[in-house]
């Protein structure tokens, strides 16, 4: 998946990776894990384009996860009334 942007008058293409619908479950989980591991560093130190790309890819992968697992398993120990 590519997305073109213009920076300083030149087109810049960001490649966010394979369409999440085409990923096997194992690959989807690996990609999500990678995003979560790099999240804070990207937020704190990445250029705006990298952060935007991170937002987009996270949304794509999480949307695919929710489509595959709409009744995902929720840990009852994590449920509270204080949210």
In short:
By secondary structure, the protein is α+β, with helices and mostly antiparallel strands. Helix content is 51%, strand content 14%.
Explain the overall architecture.
The chain is α+β, with helices and mostly antiparallel strands and 83 residues long. Helix content is 51%, strand content 14%. The chain has a two-stranded antiparallel sheet. The chain is globular. 5% of the residues are buried.
Q: What is this structure's SSE topology?
A:
Blueprint: E1 2-7, E2 10-15, H1 25-45, H2 48-68
Antiparallel strand pairs: 1-2
Helix pairs in contact: 1-2
> Biggest sheet, strands in spatial order?
1-2
Task: Kindly report the average pLDDT value.
Answer: 83
What distance lies between the first and last C-alpha atoms, to the nearest angstrom? 36 Å
The count of β-strands is 2
What gyration radius follows from the Cα positions, in whole Å? 16 Å
What's the main sheet like?
2 strands, antiparallel
Kindly state the percentage of residues in helix.
40-55%
- Give the low-pLDDT segments: 1-7
Q: How many individual helices? A: 2
Give the CA-based shape. globular
Strand content: 5-15%
**Helix-strand pattern, N to C?**
EEHH
Q: Provide the structure class.
A: alpha+beta
Task: Quickly list its features.
83 residues, alpha+beta, two-stranded antiparallel sheet, 51% helix, 14% strand, globular, disordered N terminus
